[in-house]
Amino acid sequence: MGRTVAELGITRLYLFGPLSRNTRAGALEGGMAEKSVFHGTKQEISDQIPTYARPGDWILVKGSRGMAMETIIDQCKSAIPDTHRQLEKD
């Protein structure tokens, strides 16, 4: 999966969990810059994403139900402004 991420031109990759090391290796082998691949805890990822997210960006959060990745979604939702809601008010 990491190599595919690199080949598609994805600009940032956030990884969580011990098995993600293979994804990281594939992304780096595929040409992704090391500074664009972040491995950390869910809290660290939740803190990083709003720093780099811009209007129009797509954010895919993928993981098994047991990893409870929805915690990242919930934290990012509260940290990233809802541009649709802002547009509706104008």
The 3D shape can be described as globular
Supply the number of helical segments. 5
pLDDT averaged residue by residue: 86
Number of strands: 2
How are strands sequenced across the largest beta sheet?
A: 1-2
Structural class: mainly alpha
What is the radius of gyration computed over CA atoms, rounded to a whole number of angstroms? Answer: 14 Å
The main pleated sheet reads as: 2 strands, parallel
Overall structural domain count: 1
Instruction: Please report the distance between the alpha carbons of the first and last residues.
Output: 41 Å
Low-confidence stretches: 84-90
Order of helix and strand elements from N to C terminus: HEHEHHH
Helix percentage:
40-55%
Q: Hey, roughly how much beta strand do the residues contain?
A: 5-15%
Account of the protein in words:
There is one protein chain. The protein is mostly helical. It has one domain (2-89). The chain has helices at 2-7, 21-29, 42-52, 70-79, 83-89; strands at 13-15, 37-39. Strand 1, helix 2 and strand 2 (37-39) form a beta-alpha-beta unit. Helix 3 runs parallel beside helix 4 (70-79). The radius of gyration is 14 Å and the shape is globular.
